[in-house]
Amino acid sequence: MYTLFPSIKLQISSQNCAFLTSTILLNILIFLFLNRPTPPRPLPSTQFEFPDDCEFGKVYVYDLPPILNKDLLQSCNNSAEFWSSRCNDLSNGGFGPHATGLEHIVPQNLTPAWYWTDLYAGEVIYHKRILNYKCRTLNQDQATAFYIPFYVGLSIGKYLWLNHTANDIDSHSLAMLKWVKNQDPWKKRNGSHHFIMLGRLTWDFRRITPDSDNEWGTSLLNMPLMKKVLRLTPERNVWDEMEISVPYPNPFHPRSVSDIHQWQSVLRSKNRSNLFCFVGGARKYIKHDFRDLVLTYCKNESDSCRVVDCSVFPCYEGANATIATFLDSDFCLQPKGDGFTRRATFDCMLAGAIPVFFWKGSFENQYQWHLPTNSESYSVFIDNKDVRNDSTIIRRVLEKYNRDEVKKMRETIIDFMPKFLIATSDANLGSTKDAFDIAIEGVLRKFKQQNEDALKNN
Ligand SMILES: *[C@@H]1O[C@H](CO)[C@@H](O)[C@H](O)[C@H]1NC(C)=O
Ligand SMILES: *[C@@H]1O[C@H](CO)[C@@H](O)[C@H](O)[C@H]1NC(C)=O
Ligand SMILES: *[C@@H]1O[C@H](CO)[C@@H](O)[C@H](O)[C@H]1NC(C)=O
Ligand SMILES: *[C@@H]1O[C@H](CO)[C@@H](O)[C@H](O)[C@H]1NC(C)=O
Ligand SMILES: *[C@@H]1O[C@H](CO)[C@@H](O)[C@H](O)[C@H]1NC(C)=O
Ligand SMILES: *[C@@H]1O[C@H](CO)[C@@H](O)[C@H](O)[C@H]1NC(C)=O
Ligand SMILES: *[C@@H]1O[C@H](CO)[C@@H](O)[C@H](O)[C@H]1NC(C)=O
């Protein structure tokens, strides 16, 4: 992953004081907010009536107190916080700033569909999309699923690297549960048929010790009220049945089916000059860092491997170079990052390159609704232990694939590509389903099945 919010490392201690003050203020605000009378629900402005298209039912989207979503976005504007870079990252409905420097990479008429989208922007993007979803209902009694548009990743993002207390980092999560448990649909179902999007990897929401100030993350997912709430996340805990992984957001947000088709044909006709490539940074502070090994190996094999070294070149600023690199390679090396999965895997496939994994956890039991179960049809697996023993195995394995085999795998990726794209919220994709459509339809399908199973067992 190459956008780890570089600005966060700065200025922490000098701002602790302001930070603590604002935390206390925030808690007071949450308290005040939750204890004020609920405003009347706004009247529906549009009718969402597509009965024939919604065979699995409809979604009701809670109108949460803004402190749990919109205000978290707005607070990116608060110059008292070190956080201001997030404003740009989350602009344009979560897509981020319009991409630049694509003149020689993407056909000109497609460039407006490209953004420098942050890998953790899913909460904002899914919220915007679902408000415009064809199977959304404004009537709680007609809903099969209830969406809680809480920006929990944003709410903890600013605490993760700072000295904080368990209470700070959990404050918004606790406020959300306090609010939602008093809603009628929740009370009727005790939390089941509810779902949430986690913008970050599941590991950030699983602090084990309730009151530990030093352990990583919030304990949201270990709070008893969350037990029945289904979660979408870019990396799931494979032991947790209540979690579904959805593709990381990537830079291409098609406005129509023809945008998709045009990009697919660009990929088919592209001539690639490198057998493989690696985009990423080494982590010098980790002993025997596998990424460092891959990076060094790629530099050694410069006649067949193209490298973008993110520890030298700021990949989050020059994302065009990474796209150009993937577009010019048959395979891309995908060692694990913060988690087993990597956003770069999707950037790679978006450019029609074939991912090479070194850990089974990078693909097994992830993205089950979005990617083919037969991983060999679109990716290569080389065990990290074999690479550590002799890194030249990478080239030897990849060279064994002949032109036709490479082409076939690329074709597979190009075919399923719409399933990991996220279209604009006003796009009409006809019968094509993007990552969002598949995720929400999957949730509805799952809840419908639960209802049928419950009926059978009664
Ligand atoms: C940030 O503040 C400025 C000026 O107050 C405002 O125009 C802008 O819309 C704000 N941006 C966000 C993302 O809230
Ligand atoms: C990326 O964008 C920069 C700035 O626009 C440009 O100088 C550079 O050539 C671009 N890189 C590629 C690979 O197109
Ligand atoms: C974190 O804050 C606590 C309480 O303010 C303080 O006792 C502790 O020394 C701080 N830890 C670090 C690493 O700054
Ligand atoms: C509601 O769910 C919680 C957590 O799973 C459980 O402890 C509680 O017993 C449930 N209550 C009812 C009425 O089902
Ligand atoms: C790719 O290479 C083939 C054969 O060398 C050539 O005919 C074709 O025009 C090239 N395509 C592009 C897009 O450059
Ligand atoms: C890179 O090349 C050097 C010199 O040939 C060699 O000693 C080293 O083992 C190679 N490293 C990797 C990771 O391939
Ligand atoms: C390690 O690499 C060497 C050289 O490629 C090979 O002969 C040997 O079988 C490998 N060992 C293991 C345990 O894979």
UniProtKB/TrEMBL annotation:
Residues 54-396 form the Exostosin GT47 domain. It comes from the Eukaryota. GO terms for cellular component: Golgi membrane. It is found in: Golgi apparatus membrane. The keyword Transmembrane applies. The chain crosses the membrane at residues 12-34. It is a single-pass type II membrane protein. Keywords: Glycosyltransferase, Golgi apparatus, Membrane, Signal-anchor, Transferase, Transmembrane, Transmembrane helix. Signal peptide: none annotated. Its main location: Golgi. GO terms for molecular function: glycosyltransferase activity. Pfam families: Exostosin_GT47 (PF03016). Belongs to the glycosyltransferase 47 family. This is Exostosin GT47 domain-containing protein.
